[in-house]
Amino acid sequence: MRWSRIWDIAHKEVLSTFRDRRAIVSNILLPLAMLPVVMLGMPLLLGGLFEREATTVTELGVAGAEHMPPELRTAIEAQNVSLVAVDDPEAAVREGEVPAAIAVPEGFEDTIAAGGRAEVQLYSKAGNMRSELNVGKLRNAVSAYQQGVVAERLGAEGLDPAILEPVAVTDVDASSEAERSSGVLSWLIPFFIAIWTLTGGQMTAIDATAGEKERGTLESLLVAPVRRSEVVFGKFLATLTFGLTAAIAAIGGYLLGGAVMRGVFLPRLGDEGGSIVAMMGGSLSVDARSVLLLLMSAVLLASVVAAVLLSIALFARSFKEAQSYIAPLSFLFVIPAVGLQFKDLIGIGDGAYMIPVLNALLVMDDIVKGTAALSSILVTWASLAVVIALLLAFAHRNFSREDVIFRA
Hints:
Shape: elongated
Helix content: 55-70%
Number of helices: 18
Order of helices and strands: HHEHEHEHEHHHHHHHHHHHHH
Largest sheet: 4 strands, mixed
Strand order of the largest sheet: 2-1-3-4
Low-confidence stretches: none
């Protein structure tokens, strides 16, 4: 192959795509902005909401307040709660008058004072986050009151309350710092890189194949003194350039957003909000080695996508037909990417690193979490390299078939 011819064709396709301003927006600006918004904006939003609910005095309903012991009321009010009387606590919560409520039955205080067992009812709306957060305040208050009653009763019998807990349990987080900082939303990082790789390359691939067929310029190119392999490789490089640009912009957005979150927003949040942000992945960070591994994986994934796009789009007779062929490809990324969040439950074995696309997503997820093994990375890269070679050979074969080139 003559590289000068390849670069000429790639240069032509790149210029052709860049003439459309939408290419700049979809390949650079959107990936750069979307990942920080989703990865960091959501944890920041949830962290702020959780902290606001924890620190703001909230009005919650109470039925039977006259039967409530002063100690229980004090425990509830210590949770930043102001109790308001309601006749029907279930209806009050259902209709949104209060986010949660407690009902204390008649004789509750007397039963507890007599050493008996009494019951309170807590009302909340399942699936309503604000309601569940606030019923948690009531539950914590009842638990604190209950512990006080138990301690008082044991003390009256001359017993130490510690006898109820002969075994102390300490939870120890065995995950690495990278795993803790990546949070539960880390699977979105490979997902967005893959999606932008597909989105960034498809415009160029379609324009370089079906678009040229529709304009009638592909025939002119094929009769020019240039080999079919040079045509295929030039168009492949142009498609790869835009897919890779979008992927790099997504990685850049991820790094930029993480730095802004750690430097600006996290210090301003309280303990409650900071812990929620960290749990969701708002404090994530990666080292230079991980960034290089992400970039290399993105290059190979973008190459696979570029080769697939060229092979499929060439069969189309028009730009619109090519778009209809390529649209279902997004499921190849969405389904495995969503499955990443359940990979521990599914029990994905080492064999998954042999499956193209899925292996790239798995490796990028491992890299973000700091758990990537060298063997998995090498197997994935080798597998992707073989697939790229096969797909390029398939694309070259299609470019040599007149029934595909001149398909009417």
